[in-house]
Write a sequence for this structure.
């Protein structure tokens, strides 16, 4: 992409200063420019009428925070355990406790999505065999990337 | 469906109109059929009038628009690659030598990118895709700056800033895709735009290697 090349060139120029914080500062500058340019360039599609009618309170309910909290916590704890274990060892209590809590939160999350949430985060109507196969392929693809030992 | 309205008046008038109406009738039916298949394909069909939003944009603006959306994908990859490639340099400046400890400098970012995608798409549905996309970019920008400033502090602030900056891409990715979905009508052009979005992911690697090369010459 030409845009990528331009961004790359900008980065390259800044890297002439060769001090690692500039990697992040240059990213920060480019992102700020993108955000400001986006205000003028990106069209704002109208929201669905059933969403536009909602009050703020109804919108907050529609965010499905119970589902989000359990789902995100489950993912974070599960991943934290797998990352931390090679550093301190699986014997450490907090590592396997995190893993167990993370795994236990998965059924809680699905229970909330299926039974409790008025508007669940998971689009169950979009899940069919084809989508399932695609997701399985993606999962296998990403599983190829284990922990990198630098 | 403006055509429907022109056909609605039932009052008999000039013979001209009669001819017109018989002409319009089958076309109208076809329109209704198309609308039904549309609704099957795309839930947001009720938003789409006769023209999609993308068709109302000028070509230069459309190119810029798609580029910015692709940059959501691009910057996500850059955020990962920029740390991976210079991991040793960053680690050394914080006095970290244990390779497994260094892994948190990267993993903290991927962790939040992957987790917070769960909710950020819903925020876009409720509060507007454009607004969320811009918030995501601004958030990512802010915490990237903090990650750089961590050089004056310690590695805890660095990991903390990386973890929080990961929420930025988690917001920009789904909302960028949703913007493309909402502005384009189903068709070849939409497929092409989505393909460009996907192709941007591997596109970042030249830029990553560029930074790697520069940093390595620096350390020698």
């Amino acid at each position: 992409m030409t845009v990528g090349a331009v961004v790359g060139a900008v980065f390259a120029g800044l890297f002439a200063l060769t001090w690692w914080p500039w990697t992040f500062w240059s990213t920060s500058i480019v992102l700020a420019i993108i955000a400001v340019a986006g205000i003028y360039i990106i069209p704002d599609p109208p929201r669905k009428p059933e969403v536009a009618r909602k009050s703020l309170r109804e919108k907050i309910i529609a965010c499905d925070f119970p589902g989000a909290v359990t789902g995100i916590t489950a993912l974070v704890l599960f991943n934290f355990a797998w990352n931390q274990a090679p550093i301190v060892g699986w014997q450490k209590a907090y590592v396997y406790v995190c893993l167990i809590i993370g795994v236990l939160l998965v059924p809680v999350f699905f229970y909330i999505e299926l039974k409790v949430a008025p508007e669940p985060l998971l689009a169950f109507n979009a899940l069919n065999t084809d989508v399932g196969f695609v997701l399985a392929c993606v999962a296998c693809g990403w599983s190829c990337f284990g922990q990198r030992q630098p | 469906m403006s055509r429907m309205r022109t056909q609605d008046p039932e009052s008999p008038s000039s013979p001209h109109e009669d001819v017109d109406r018989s002409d319009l009738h089958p076309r109208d039916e076809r329109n209704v059929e198309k609308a039904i298949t549309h609704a099957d394909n795309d839930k947001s069909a009720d938003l789409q009038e006769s023209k999609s939003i993308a068709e109302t944009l000028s070509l230069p603006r459309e190119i810029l628009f798609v580029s910015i959306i692709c940059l959501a994908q691009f910057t996500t990859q850059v955020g990962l690659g920029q740390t991976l490639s210079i991991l040793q340099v960053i680690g050394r400046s914080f006095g970290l030598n244990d390779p497994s400890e260094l892994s948190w400098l990267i993993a903290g970012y991927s962790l939040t990118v992957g987790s917070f995608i769960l909710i950020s798409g819903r925020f876009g549905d409720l509060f507007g895709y454009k607004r969320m996309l811009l918030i995501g970019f601004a958030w990512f920008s802010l915490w990237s700056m903090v990650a750089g400033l961590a050089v004056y502090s310690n590695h805890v602030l660095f990991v903390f800033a990386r973890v929080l900056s990961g929420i930025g891409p988690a917001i920009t990715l789904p909302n960028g895709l949703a913007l493309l979905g909402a502005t384009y009508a189903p068709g070849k052009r939409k497929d092409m735009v989505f393909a460009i979005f996907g192709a941007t992911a591997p596109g970042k690697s030249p830029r990553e290697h560029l930074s790697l090369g520069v940093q390595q010459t620096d350390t020698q």
Observations:
- The CA atoms of residues 114 and 124 of chain A lie 9 Å apart.
- Chain A is about 75% helix and 0% strand.
